[in-house]
Every structure is written in C-alpha cells, then in structure tokens.
Design a protein that fits this description.
With about 325 residues, the chain is mainly α. It contains twelve helices and two strands. Helices cover about 40% and strands about 0% of the residues. The protein has a two-stranded antiparallel ribbon. It starts with a helix and ends in a 29-residue tail after the last helix.
C-alpha cells in the first residue's frame, strides 16, 4: 500500500514538473497559445451538436446555426452579411463561432453576455431563423428522440429554452482551434515560422496591433471604435456598442474580432466590406494606427496572420432524430 502511495506521489510530482516546464517554455508574448477544451459533460456536448445542426429550430425548416456558422468554412458563411428567413439580408457579417468561447461577450455589439445567452437570439430573430421560442420548444417536445435525450442529459422530459441554449453553448465551448503554427512557435519551436512570417509578426506587434489583438483568441477581449484616426465609411446602419449602452461615445465601437483562422473567415469587419486580408490590413493600418503599409509589409503581416490557423474541429455529422406525426410542419413562406 505504501509503495502505491509513493508511486502516486512520484507520478504527481513528475506531472507537476512537466506542467511547470511547459509553462516556462511559452514565449513571453501578448498572444497566448490556445488550449484544447475538454468537456465534463460529453452527453450535453452531443445533444448540443445535434441542436447546432437542427434546421427544425427554424420556421422554414432549412436554417440551422451551422447555416451562418458553417463549421466546414471556418465557422462562418463567407458572405458580407448573412441571409436569414425568407431571404432576409442581415445587417452584419456573421462572426466565426470558432473560439467564440474566449470572447468577453457575444455579437459584434456584445449584447449577449455568454454563449448560452447568444444561442437564444437567432432562433427567434425575424431575419435569422424566424421561429418563436414557444414553437421551437413545441417542435422539440414532439420528437421522442429529443425528449429521451433531454431527459438523459437534464433529468427532465419537459424541454425548456434554458436546456436548449445550455446544450448548444456546451457544444460551442468545444469549438476551439489549438496547435496553430504560431502556437507551436510560442511553445518553443523555432522552426515553426518562416523569416517572412516572423517579420510580419514583429511588424504587427511593433505597429501596435497587439493592443487590441492579444490573448489566446488574438482579439475578442475589448470593444474598440472603428475609425480612430480616419472615419470608417460604411453603408451599414449598425451603430455598434451604442445600441446596447445608449451612449453616444460607444457609437461605431465593436467587439474586436478574433484573428484565429482569419484566412478562412473572409470577408472582414462588421459589415463585410473588406474582401481580402490584404485589404483589411491596409484599412486597419490607416484607420486605427495612422500607418500606411507598403505592399511588402502587408504581405508580411498577412503571412503571419495565416500562421494563426489551428486544428479545426473534426466532427461526425449527427444523425438527427425523426419527427413524429405530431411535429409541427415547417412553413418556409410564413409571414
């Protein structure tokens, strides 16, 4: 028994030393490595995944969370602004769902405090999924497979909106993208980046970009005004953070987007006006930093930005439970 205790102690000591050594190898940079997320509730994750891909949560029966946050396309839809129920054009560019758990709030204006609060909005929004919450719950309640699964996860056969959003949020927590080449460099691999990419990072940092784009998500931790040194010209009616706070000082302030996997999340900005990374880099340099980058500098920064692409979530598409005879039929043409 004593030998087992000694062995356990030594194992814990080795693990502690290993963790300490790993921490000491991380470079002291404003950008930090992303850590994988391991859920303590795998059954809730699986339920949330089904709901994320569930088009019956929309009035038309064809729109799901994955429609605008396509996990095959960097967690977004690559449109300037998303298309919702009855082909309604949304006012903003869909931000990526990847690494969204690392943000201080959700939506461009931060009106949702966390992923669970965010998950409720699009279901009912007229220009998104267009499904009243009461009807969405009625649909789920009419599907025996979901009733059984909600009972298994939450201990209740009566499905509530809080259960739905909690499951979706738990699934979205897993959508992190660690192990980018930049993360590998941060962890001590000197060969992970090329000279051009390192030059781009140095320029990115020396220019002041890391004041806003820092931490594991390389953004998402503050609200900043779009157009600090030059006005940003946009046809979008969106006011930014002011729509939440009611303060004129917050007009045109938006949540700083993550730059993780940014080569996949085009077009850029809240209105999707910047089509390419090169264009976005040029605009941000001039408007936010008062810096006019030369073409070579832009190419270096873009080369660095592409090193932020990490391991994408590898998912098996869920098999959704079949509707019952009592499940309300979708109505793609509902007013």
């Amino acid at each position: 028994m004593r030998m087992k205790a000694i062995s356990l102690f030594m194992g814990l000591a080795v693990a502690a030393v290993g963790a300490s050594t790993l921490a000491s190898t991380v470079r002291d940079e404003p950008i930090k490595p992303i850590e994988p997320y391991v859920s303590e509730h795998p059954e809730k994750v699986q339920l949330g995944k089904k709901l994320f891909f569930e088009p019956r949560l929309s009035m038309s029966g064809i729109i799901s969370c994955n429609t605008c946050h396509n996990l095959s396309r960097g967690g977004t839809d690559n449109l300037k602004t998303s298309i919702g129920h009855k082909w309604a054009a949304g006012p903003v560019n869909a931000p990526t769902v990847l690494n969204s758990s690392l943000a201080l709030a959700q939506f461009w204006d931060g009106r949702a405090a966390d992923l669970q609060e965010q998950a409720a909005g699009p279901i009912q929004a007229d220009i998104e999924m267009g499904m009243p919450h009461a009807l969405a719950l009625e649909v789920l309640q009419s599907i025996p497979g979901y009733v059984d699964e909600f009972e298994s996860v939450f201990g209740s056969r009566e499905i509530t909106l809080d259960m739905v959003t909690a499951a979706i949020a738990e699934f979205e927590e897993t959508l992190v993208t660690p192990n980018s080449r930049f993360d590998q460099w941060l962890l001590g691999d000197d060969d992970a980046l090329t000279d051009k990419e390192l030059a781009g990072y140095k320029l990115f940092k020396d220019s002041g970009c890391t004041v806003c784009h820092n931490g594991p998500a390389v953004g998402g931790t503050s609200f900043q005004r779009m157009g600090v040194l030059e006005p940003y010209q946009s046809t979008s009616p969106v006011e930014g953070r002011a729509a939440v706070t009611g303060k004129d000082a917050d007009r045109f302030s938006f949540k700083v987007p993550t730059l993780r996997n940014v080569e996949y999340t085009y077009p850029y900005f809240h209105d999707g006006e910047a089509r390419t990374l090169e264009e976005a880099t040029d605009i941000m340099g001039r408007l936010q930093l008062g810096r006019v980058y030369e073409e070579q500098e832009i190419n270096q920064i873009v080369a660095f930005l592409k090193t932020l692409t990490g391991d994408m979530p590898r998912l098996t598409l869920p098999m959704l439970p079949p509707s019952s005879n009592d499940t309300p039929a979708p109505d793609p043409y509902a007013d």
